[in-house]
Design goal:
There is one protein chain. By secondary structure, the chain is α/β, with parallel strands linked by helices. The protein has three domains: 66 residues, Orthogonal Bundle (434 Repressor (Amino-terminal Domain)); 132 residues, Rossmann fold; 121 residues, Rossmann fold, CATH 3.40.50.2300. 44% of the residues lie in helices and 16% in strands. It has 14 helices and twelve strands. The chain has a six-stranded parallel β-sheet with strand order 2-1-3-4-5-11. Helix 2 packs across helix 4 and helix 7 crosses helix 14. It is globular.
Length: 340
């Protein structure tokens, strides 16, 4: 008569024993052994070492059940992040900046073990949205590019742990993370000067949401040019375009004939290339904002990952009820790309 299988069935090492041996909770041990995000690598290694030492082998049936629960899980209070955007257009038909920002947010949230709930400003009154967030146990609110001053002033930011990523028409009274556009302009300008350019041009988009960016670009370019008092080079030449810039760019190139250009984005850079009026050589056409799929020009990456990461750091490290008179501003450097 065969022996009872008690040595295999009833003396199985449990996940709880592995967790106790590694000095972590059972849920952390489970995530570490499953290779899920939200666990530091050093902790995961400690859990795996404890499992090997104890001879832990997961029960196949329980592992299958746990996997099903993980796929259909509902996140408990305090583990959901609110992503507050301007309107449904930002969600259904996002512009490139909104698209890469949201994708970066989803990746970072997943890596940190959070779930993301998206809310639109235009669909919620300030106090109603605050009540919804509180009822769901949401403490962290990240936002970008809000445009209604009255709504922003009425929302109770101090009831949550918040951070803003990029700047719209209105800045909420919370920490702001923005790409360092001044550094991009300065670095791009110096790059063109080192290539021997004597007439540096700048194509800057003119629109309500970008007015602050355009003015910052212009200010730093003029400051740098005028600082070189002994240089015979003229100050940079600006084109503040709007709408379809094709004819505006062509007229600008014919009139000023720049030998180096800083373009707001690949959109305007392509217009320059297609015009045939600019001698594009030796990387003299630089983009100030590149998205991951833009590979034809040199320039500066939008770097949504860096901004989102900093926003999470600020929000997670803040305290509810804290509303400083002067919220912090963090500028994130944008990596230089030489793909073009």
């Amino acid at each position: 008569m065969p022996e009872k299988q008690q040595n295999h069935e009833y003396s199985r090492v449990t996940l709880r024993e592995v967790a106790e041996a590694a000095g972590v909770s059972k849920s952390v041990a489970q995530r570490a052994l499953a290779g899920r995000p939200g666990v530091a690598e050093s902790t995961a290694e400690r859990v795996r070492a404890a499992a090997d030492e104890l001879g832990y082998r997961p029960d196949p049936a329980l592992a299958k059940l746990a996997a099903a629960r993980w796929r259909s899980r509902t996140v408990s209070s305090g583990t959901t992040v609110a992503w507050l955007v301007e309107d449904s257009e930002s969600v259904e038909r996002p512009n490139p900046a909104q698209k890469v920002m949201t994708e970066a947010l989803m990746r970072e949230a997943d890596a940190l073990g959070y779930k993301v709930a998206v809310f639109t400003r235009t669909n919620h009154r300030p106090q109603r949205l605050a009540a919804i967030l509180a009822s769901r146990g949401i403490e962290i609110v990240l936002t970008a590019s809000l445009v209604d001053p009255a709504w922003v002033a009425a929302f109770p930011w101090d009831r949550f742990r918040c951070a803003a990523v990029s700047l719209g028409e209105v800045r909420p009274p919370i920490p702001l993370v923005h790409r360092n556009i001044l550094e991009c302009v300065e670095t791009g300008w110096r790059n063109l000067r080192e290539k021997g350019c004597k007439r540096i041009g700048a194509l800057l988009y003119e629109g309500d949401l970008y007015a602050h960016t355009r003015m910052a670009h212009a200010a730093v370019l003029l400051r740098m040019a005028m600082d070189e008092t002994r240089s015979p080079h003229p100050p940079p030449l600006f084109l503040h375009y709007q709408g379809d810039p094709r004819s505006q760019i062509q007229a600008y190139l014919r009139k000023h004939r720049p030998d180096g250009l800083l373009a707001h984005s690949p959109y305007s850079a392509r217009m320059v290339r297609e015009s045939g009026l600019f001698e594009e050589k030796n990387g003299r056409l630089i983009c100030l904002k590149l998205y991951p799929w833009n590979t034809e020009f040199p320039g500066f990456a939008f770097h949504a990952e860096g901004m989102i990461r900093e926003a999470f750091r600020h929000a997670a490290g803040s305290e509810r009820g804290l509303r400083p008179e002067t919220p912090t501003l963090t500028l994130v450097s944008c990596p230089w790309s030489t793909t073009g």
